[in-house]
TrEMBL record:
Signal peptide: none annotated. It comes from Frankia umida. This is EamA family transporter. The chain crosses the membrane at residues 7-26, 32-52, 73-90, 96-114, 126-145, 151-168, 180-202, 214-233, 245-263, 269-288. Belongs to the EamA transporter family. Keywords: Membrane, Transmembrane, Transmembrane helix.
């Protein structure tokens, strides 16, 4: 594998993670309800990718989610909706850095399931990266810093749903093009959030919302959701799911900096130490020997070298 082929997905995922870390500032800049922000975010992201897909279709690219793969893709879309809803609600109760560091306990969950589902082997270096990430997150996750036990519950739910989204997306990416999958997921997420907006949100307030409240949510949808999520999934299909998850633990780094500079959220010494551990974990993941590429399962190995390529037919038209 060429050095550039190895570095592009690694650095791309790291860049997306650092970019996503600043999203909490936009959430806190808007006074809209958490459900309303999540709905606008998914709707705007879906609109951007639907327009992009329409342009590609006019050029002859018919990439889409086949009927046999729509149910798993639909499930990941609903998990994404639940993640953004709980993530946004958690940001209402706790500082940006605390929420994001807690959410990125997800890499530990991902590593456990990836080992069982895809037989991904975890080297000693990756194992150490996971340990540093977990310890760093736990140092930050104290009820007093997370908005109480309700805040911890929201953060925990956001972490679980995010882990489920990444694992499900990785499986779908074996047979579905990243752009088609991301577009489908965002459309499902937006539709799934409609009942939540009606029941838990403030529809009347949303209709009369000012530009100062709407623009941050729309920016979240266009840049942080539509474009950045597509970039992330495009990198995910070239990385092991464990490595991708660990790299996302870099997100709290930029979140603490953004919270400090934009919102004057100053972390304590213990929190800073936890973030440093997470950063060390992400740095180790960048150099792990199994960082790029998918290890075949024993069944795939027995089928022969051509078996793994059958699930990649979408790449020709992606």
């Amino acid at each position: 594998m060429k050095t550039t082929d190895r570095l592009v997905p690694l650095l791309g995922t790291a860049a997306v993670a650092l970019f996503w870390g600043t999203s909490g500032v936009l959430v806190k800049r808007s006074s809209l309800a958490a459900t309303d922000i999540a709905f606008i975010r998914t709707s705007a992201g879906a609109a951007v990718l639907l327009a992009w897909s329409t342009i590609h279709r006019c050029r002859g690219d018919r990439a889409s989610v086949a009927a046999g793969h729509r149910m798993p893709a639909m499930l990941t879309g609903l998990l994404l909706a639940a993640h953004w809803l709980t993530f946004t609600a958690a940001l209402r109760a706790a500082p940006i850095g605390t929420v994001l560091t807690g959410v990125y306990l997800a890499p530990v969950m991902i590593a456990v399931f990836a080992r069982r589902v895809w037989q991904e082997r975890v080297s000693g270096r990756t194992g150490l990266a996971l340990l540093l990430t977990a310890v760093g997150s736990l140092l930050v996750l104290r009820p007093a810093a997370a908005g109480g036990w309700s805040g911890l519950l929201l953060i925990g739910t956001a972490a679980v749903t995010y882990a489920g989204f990444i694992l499900g997306s990785k499986r779908s990416l074996r047979v579905v093009a990243p752009r088609a999958l991301t577009t489908f997921q965002l459309v499902v997420a937006a539709i799934g959030l409609v009942p939540m907006v009606i029941v838990l949100g403030q529809p009347a307030t949303l209709v009369r919302a000012s530009a100062a409240d709407l623009l941050p949510a729309i920016l979240l949808g266009v840049a942080y959701t539509g474009i950045a999520l597509l970039a992330y999934l495009s990198c995910l299909h070239r990385l092991t799911v464990t490595t991708s998850g660990i790299l996302l633990s870099l997100e709290p780094i930029s979140s603490f900096v953004a919270g400090w500079l934009a919102l004057d959220e100053r972390p304590g010494v213990i929190v800073v130490f936890g973030v440093i551990l997470a950063l060390c974990g992400g740095s180790l993941a960048l150099t792990a020997p199994e960082a790029v590429g998918e290890r075949q399962s024993p069944e795939a190995s027995r089928r022969g070298p051509g078996a793994a390529s059958k699930g990649r037919q979408w790449q020709a038209g992606s």
